[in-house]
Give the backbone structure.
Amino acid sequence: MSIDINLPLSLYIHIPWCIKKCPYCDFNSHKKDSSKNDYSETKYIDELISDLTQKLPLIWGRKIKSIFIGGGTPSLFSPDSYEKLFSQIRNLLPFDSNIEITLEANPGAVEHGNFAGYKEAGINRISLGVQSFSDLQLKKLGRVHLVDDVYRAVSEIKSAKMNSFNLDIMYGLPSQGVAESIEDLKSAISLGPDHLSWYQLTIEPNTVFYRKKPVLPKDIDIITMEKLGRDLLAENNFVRYEISAYSKPGFECKHNINYWSFGDYLGIGAGAHGKLTDANLGVIRRYRQYKMPGAYMNAEDKTVEYSELTIDDIIFEYFLNRFRLNKDIDIRDFYLAIGLVGDLSDNLYKELLDQKLKIATDKGFINFNGYKISKTRLGQDFLDDLISIFLVDSK
């Protein structure tokens, strides 16, 4: 089978440092501490460029459709650093003419005037980590910003004339009431974002909250928050296109849609992951980078491990991601994606996939008419159970 060189390809850039680690965060983030000699903005930018240069043979001839700079707190880095980084990246890779370049930002970690500088450097979308419009809740969450910082940041984002901006909001916060959660969402909507990431606080292993769990709202209150919040978002013309992503029409996050559609993405930076189709060998591979910033910057080869996806892996990972989107699946799109793995028998895929789809249909999680797969309300409400059917050896 041939490889389509026009397959969507995104670039993820990880900035691993924060001012301090939030008690709920399980991302690869580390407190900025110059005394440890592992923080150097200039050296890290140089190492990112070196990392990308090493990976160029894997993506020759392919355009970058989107770039997402995540963390950590990417807004700790200056506009000058990003200008240098993008200048080098453009010398190495062709950009799509409508490329989306997103920067995650913390309202308490952006110097005045930096959003205008970020726009000048080439960034055209901001994802602002607000989390709550309550100073008390922000303190409980270990955030370094106050509500006033949010309003200041949004004002500067608008003045910088970014193409769009997202606000990150959580509900189900410690001791949060239903009315308080909805007021948070109303405050976010009132600022006029094009996109909202609105999701429930979850307690993850290896976090402070996991070791010392806060008092969380009752399940019945969480359910009420979800219902009222979704109704409020719909009333304000926000379309729920993914589990926790809502946007005005035409402002969906291109980078995340590519990820959830099983598209390829190149990851650079400490702890970054990537998923790439190898055109020479006809396989799909994942890889991961050194996690600790110091180890990453000092390593000549930044990649720790490559792994090749099996047929079972491909089926599971495709549906794990694709079922997150609130859009029917055309089975032909799945076959187009798996056709990238080279000269394997479609019959192997068809046999395994038919088994999974029959189980999901029998359980009432999906409707399948031979080419179109649509989630039922039951499948939407019990998404984890639906996805588990596509695990290896699931029955």
Summary: The domain at 9-258 is CATH 3.20.20.70 (TIM Barrel). The chain has two domains: 9-258, 315-395.
